[in-house]
Amino acid sequence: MIKKISYKDQIYEHLKQEIIMGDMKTGEIYSEQMIADKLKVSRTPVREAILQLRFENLVDVFSGRGFSVRPIHFFDVQQIIQARTAIESASLRALIIGLDTAEGQEILEQMEQCVERDMPATLSDENNYNFMRSDMEFHMLSVSFTGNEFFIQIMNMMRTRLEQAMISSLREQLRPIAAIDEHEKIFSAVRRRDTDDAIRSLVDHMIMTEDILREIIID
């Protein structure tokens, strides 16, 4: 069956993309009515979407005044990268152990497709949004393999917050090309079943991302 996407979900995705791309600015107050008028919908699905964004720490809601985009600080990025490194290291280890399963082989094929086709195909995107989405999908593959609902939920909760920062890092000259190389090293190690090298490559990738964001995000 084809699942019908609710107005709330569509509005949530729209607002989330505007936050990630920086179209909605920190420090400005937005109202439910303003968004509803712009999208030509009622206020109810807008309110529901904003509540979901607040749950994901993307916005602050002010009673009777509206909401604003929550600024991202480098301390937030550090904590997210620490959590991601821990979860993804455990996930890569589990994936390598399970590579002989049909599920493991399917994930390996999807990882290869991501680094060999999907990410390079988006290099021409001027705003880097699709590249970033492919980047994050690569990382989610090993996490989804574990079937650990807590891992998946935590990663999804952190994902948009980090995407908000990643868009800035990808605007650095040649960063997308370097990022593909870093992902290829992770994939190659997984394919060779070299757990230590896979985790080491992941850590190196995360350190590089953190170093770039350190220069970009000003607290």
How would you describe this protein?
The chain has 219 residues and is mostly helical. It folds into 2 domains: 7-69, Winged helix-like DNA-binding domain superfamily/Winged helix DNA-binding domain (Arc Repressor Mutant, subunit A, Orthogonal Bundle); 74-216, GntR ligand-binding domain-like (Four Helix Bundle (Hemerythrin (Met), subunit A), Up-down Bundle), CATH 1.20.120.530. 73% of the residues lie in helices and 4% in strands. A hairpin with a 3-residue loop joins strand 1 (59-62) and strand 2 (66-69). Helix 4 (74-97) packs across helix 6 (129-146), helix 4 (74-97) runs antiparallel to helix 9 (195-216) and helix 5 runs antiparallel to helix 8 (175-191). 30% of the residues are buried. The model has no long low-confidence stretch (mean pLDDT 89).
CATH architecture heading of the largest domain = Up-down Bundle
CATH topology (level 3) name of the largest domain: Four Helix Bundle (Hemerythrin (Met), subunit A)
CATH superfamily of the largest domain: GntR ligand-binding domain-like
Oligomeric state of the chains in view: single chain
Low-confidence stretches: none
Name the features.
219 residues; mainly alpha; Arc Repressor Mutant, subunit A; Four Helix Bundle (Hemerythrin (Met), subunit A); 2 domains; two-stranded antiparallel sheet; 9 helices; 2 strands; 73% helix; 4% strand
